[in-house]
Amino acid sequence: MVSQTQRPDIGLRIDVIDQPEDIIQAFDCVCEAFGRQVQDGVWIAMNPGWDTPQGKASGAERMVARWRNKTNDKNGLPNTVFLKATLPSPESESRIIVGFSIWVQASTVEGHGDPPVEDLVNALDLNTLYPGNEPEQRYLCQVISSLHKRRNEVIKEKATATPPAVMILDLCVVDPAHQRKGIARELVQWGIDEAQRRGDLEATTEASSMGRHVYGQMGFQADGPEVEYVVDKEFASRSKPPNLFMRTKGSGV
Ligand SMILES: CC(C)(COP(=O)(O)OP(=O)(O)OC[C@H]1O[C@@H](n2cnc3c(N)ncnc32)[C@H](O)[C@@H]1OP(=O)(O)O)[C@@H](O)C(=O)NCCC(=O)NCCS
């Protein structure tokens, strides 16, 4: 692991989100990073109208629903943890959310984490997102299946590990206005530490072309080539973001 260069203390805090208002505020960071900055084609397809007030509100609402519906493992720990990174606001006593990450404990063994998603149409609520739009629903199922192919294989491989689970960094964003201040590093370190606390679990992620710079310095290594998106011919020309499956313990289960 690369040692962190001395940075000025910016008053950064990492906390577990425990109120829906924070998810809504954090969703702004997600829109700024994945929508405006990266223009990530898959994220945009999952969040139609993200750059309109109504589309943004719907996206935030879906995220709040996900937060509300989180499950616990047999030890009572949440299988999904939503983290916020905050800085003191320059204008008031309050703090502003500048980064957001989601960590998921996953397992095929009951009580040890959320199982791999089988029914993407339901899990992604595609009938609400794209009612009656079969091609768009099919496209999203194909890209998400491709993106999570290796993740799901590893969850299954871990069924014989002790404990039989992995910690997945499912999402990590930092508001572009606050990038390169070491914020992602702290959001990632929290999850790595939590994985350790939960029984030395391996951490995995699908790393974007920006994210891999951070994760590579924090003990994640690439496992396999760039994600290959297996989609029907009609979707071949759509822009799909580069992603690399990365994990902290190599291929040994
Ligand atoms: C990827 C992302 C989360 C990184 O957030 P961040 O807070 O800026 O990252 P950090 O400041 O913690 O970076 C730590 C180190 O990683 C490396 N790094 C981070 N971003 C980098 C980039 N874009 N290019 C090259 N190196 C980078 C640097 O070595 C950096 O240290 P330094 O600034 O002292 O050189 C942020 O750029 C982002 O939200 N991008 C858009 C969405 C995205 O791709 N998310 C990742 C999904 S997997």
TrEMBL record:
GO terms for molecular function: acyltransferase activity, transferring groups other than amino-acyl groups. Pfam families: Acetyltransf_10. SUPFAM superfamilies: Acyl-CoA N-acyltransferases (Nat) (SSF55729). PROSITE patterns: GNAT (PS51186). PANTHER family: GNAT FAMILY ACETYLTRANSFERASE, N-ACETYLTRANSFERASE DOMAIN-CONTAINING PROTEIN. This is N-acetyltransferase domain-containing protein. Gene3D superfamilies: 3.40.630.30. Residues 109-251 form the N-acetyltransferase domain.
